[in-house]
Amino acid sequence: MESLESKQTADIDEVRSNKRPSFLTVLCVLSLIWEILLSLLALLALCFSGFIFEAVQNFVNDDQMAKVSAEQIEAMNQLLNIGEGKFAVIMGGFMLAYGVSIFGVAKMWKQKKVGFYVYTTVNILLMIINIYRGGYFDAVVTIAFIAMYAANLKHMK
């Protein structure tokens, strides 16, 4: 009888020690929401790339150009210079990266350290792309999330 009770106590203690911390849960949920949103946006951009390019081309050729800044005109011309094919490849690459990042978050949800390394690798690469494009705020947020996940590594196996 005593061994059954001690076994049950040991099982309960094991479940308690494997419980995911609330902070890690919040981080994972926020990351999943963000990564899924970005994946859907990339998918929509991929699906509607023909429409996007046609609309931008029509806008560039229209008299409305006087109402936009030189920076916006330059951005539209850069998009048109990329072309639909490269744009599709870029969006596909982003979808792949976001998918791998979601995989990393799912592993961290299960408290696996490999998820942290996958998430960190992919998001550092995405951060470099964002910095190159001038997205410094994204870089700060990425570093913050990686740091917060790193603080939870002690809870992962």
Can you describe this structure?
The protein has 157 residues and is mostly helical. It has one domain (24-155). Helices cover 83% and strands 0% of the residues. Helix 2 packs across helix 4. The longest helix has 40 residues, at 70-109. The protein is elongated, with a radius of gyration of 22 Å. The chain starts with a helix and ends in a 6-residue tail after the last helix.
Brief overview:
The protein contains 6 helices and no strands. The protein is mainly alpha-helical and 157 residues long.
Q: Could you spell the SSE succession in H and E letters?
A: HHHHHH
**What would you call the structural class?**
mainly alpha
For the sheet with most strands, the description reads: none
The domain tally reads 1
Helical fraction: over 70%
How many helices in DSSP terms?
Answer: 6
SSE blueprint and pairings:
Blueprint: H1 2-17, H2 22-47, H3 49-61, H4 70-109, H5 113-132, H6 136-151
Which features characterize this protein?
elongated, mainly alpha, 157 residues, 6 helices
